[in-house]
From TrEMBL:
Protein family (similarity comment): Belongs to the TRAFAC class myosin-kinesin ATPase superfamily. Myosin family.
Signal peptide from the UniProt entry: none
Protein name, as recorded: Myosin XIX
PROSITE patterns: MYOSIN_MOTOR
Source organism, top-level taxon: Eukaryota
InterPro entries assigned to the protein according to its UniProt record, in alphabetical order: Kinesin_motor_dom_sf, Myosin_head_motor_dom-like, P-loop_NTPase
Protein keywords: Actin-binding, ATP-binding, Motor protein, Myosin, Nucleotide-binding
GO BP annotations, alphabetical order: actin filament organization
GO molecular function: actin filament binding; ATP binding; microfilament motor activity
A single Gene Ontology CC term: myosin complex
Gene designation per UniProt: MYO19
Classification lineage: Eukaryota, Metazoa, Chordata, Craniata, Vertebrata
Amino acid sequence: MLQQTWTSRCLMKFYAVVAASPTSWENHKIAERIEQRILNSNPVMEAFGNACTLRNNNSSRFGKFIQLQLNRAQQMTGATVQTYLLEKTRVACQASNERNFHIFYQICKGASADERLQWHLPEGAAFSWLPNPERTLEEDCFEVTREAMLHLGIDAPTQNNIFQVRGKATPLTCGSGDGQPLS
């Protein structure tokens, strides 16, 4: 678990304990359910927003703002999570020895043969937007991402629409047209 995820979890637990009435088991359960939904969003946000960089195998390329919602009695009643993708160019161009967002590697390594066919990802194909695929990281666990998506209400047909490659993947170059990455 990432340090920022751990910190968020500790703060939510602390607030849930402080804000919940000691006589209200229902309020405690609501706070736990909210906390669990926020934590279930982390594998999804990390898959779609983290990448392997030169300095860190699981570097966040997004920002996250969590707003806890309270009622007049200061009891947790809900939460919103806003994410901000900070590095959109990573989809098309990565520095040498870096990787694209984790989700692309998760799909290519974790999809079944039938899914790869359905999603237009032929076995053994090389994609210009998928550099350094031979590296295997702990973050390459596709099942964890899919399970988290299910917990968040993203059903299997919707996941299939998300993972399907639309059109033909074409080679991409970065920089000034010389094929070299931007520094």
